[in-house]
Design goal:
128 residues, mainly alpha, rod-shaped, Homeodomain-like_sf, Tc3 transposase DNA binding domain-containing protein
């Protein structure tokens, strides 16, 4: 009962009532906000069991999020973007910008065709 009083005095109940947390989310599916809530509760001195019970996540998830915060100092999970390479390099972006400034009324297929005519890499309409 002591932990419930602590949550009430800190305002977590009001905050969590407005923001419904999913109980089926995995470790990788946590948003930055949810990670921040977990880290904040742990930094306030709440034990893992209390945090897990309040937020509806497993003990393992709470431990991993907090351990990652203690090691790196960050709560965001940006690992899913590590190996994603950019389609257009900086030079390609400058070339595309110059072409757009020259012909402002061009459609996307026209822009892609014009860009592909002079560039080393081909791009699609979706990339442009």
């Amino acid at each position: 009962m002591e932990s419930a009083a602590l949550y009430r005095t800190t305002g977590y109940d009001k905050l969590l009532d407005r923001f419904l947390l999913s109980t089926t989310a995995g470790y990788q599916d946590l948003s930055n906000f949810e990670r921040g809530l977990i880290v904040g509760a742990r930094e306030m001195g709440h034990i893992i069991s209390e945090v897990a019970m309040k937020f509806g996540y497993s003990h393992t998830t709470i431990s991993r999020v907090y351990h990652e915060y203690r090691v790196s100092g960050k709560t965001s999970n940006l690992r899913h973007r590590c190996d994603q390479q950019k389609t257009l390099k900086e030079r390609d972006r400058r070339c595309l910008t110059r072409n757009l400034k020259r012909v402002r009324c061009a459609t996307l297929p026209q822009i892609a065709t014009h860009f592909n005519a002079g560039a080393l890499r081909n791009v699609t309409v979706r990339t442009v």
